[in-house]
Amino acid sequence: MSEWIDLRSDTVTRPTAAMRRAMAGAEVGDDVYREDPTVNRLEELAAERFGKQAGLFVPTGTMGNTIAIKLLTRHGQEVICDSRSHILNYELSMMAWFSGCVARPVATSDGRLNWSAVEREIRPPGPHWAPTGAIEIENTHNMAGGTVYPVEAIDEICGQAHARGLKVHMDGARIFNAEARLGVPAVRIAAQADTIMFCLSKGLGAPSGSMLVGTREAIDEGRLLRKRLGGGMRQVGVLAAAGLIALEQMPARLGEDHDHARLLAEALAAIPGVSLDPRAVETNIVIFDVSRTGMTSPVISARLKEQGVLINGISPTAMRAVTHYDAGWIECQKAIEVLRKVLAPVAA
Ligand code: TLP
Predict the structure, then answer these.
(1) What is the pLDDT of residues 175-205, one digit of tens each?
(2) Among the CATH numbers 3.30.465.10, 1.10.3720.10, 3.10.20.30, 3.90.1150.10, which is that of 253-347?
(3) Rounded CA gap, 197 and 61, in Å?
């Protein structure tokens, strides 16, 4: 697939040469017995990076979120989240399936919850309502176009939630993109969250793997939930070795992806039929509207693909391009040329 310019997601990044070398030489053991030194090192480093007591290596972000929701809730509760959140829309109703919870979605313009909107959705005790179990915030917010929470908003949500005995999970799949954007360390951004999931794959480039961090008690229980989900992975130090490089070396370069996303957004905004506000692009995700092109996003995707560019629709009228390590500025410029060509009939 390397001949493609692949802007479908930052999940498509391939492990770097350094990661492949580290994977080949990784010291391993049976991680279900906690005997994989490389996994143990990664879990310690992740916890340390977030100022939490413990960390858990999970194969995917979805599994990390699934375990977190289970840890923070009881059957029959509600989870307050943004209406476009990944946990609600892209994780096969895992909240219902594994935790017996339903989502209480809050519509936002930009993916960012605020305390007053959350507070309105907290169920008072009563004979009819499912009690609120937890609050979930997604930072950066994928489907809102990579938007970043202000640290104060997170602190307020967490502080108020804790005062009411509620816990907060952060889906920080792309938390290091938030770090790069704000220039504030991830440990500060997520300081008040009870559990944080972040991905080593995506922008950090590891082939697979995410981390869940939190209190030792939560992570000890999370380890059992991971096993129950079939995620006890044995000699998985080969993946953790790539994860260590992802965590140690890759966050520092994410600003480049953001620069490329902004340049891509500016060029896209100048193409007739395409609508977006480049100033709204905060990190590495560019969502643009194609309703005025007279083509649906699947048609545009297919035509782009014929010219070697992969960009998916997120609805019939909106598309998402994601910049990453394997799609730098040269690739983005080529993609723009192809986009201009594919959308030329509109210009005419
Ligand atoms: N997002 C993927 C798709 O599932 C949409 C992508 O291409 O962006 N939280 C957030 C905010 C995510 O964006 C994703 C993946 C996940 C969780 C799940 O991670 P994985 O794919 O590792 O289960």
Answers:
(1) 999 999 999 999 999 999 999 999 999 999 9
(2) 3.90.1150.10
(3) 7
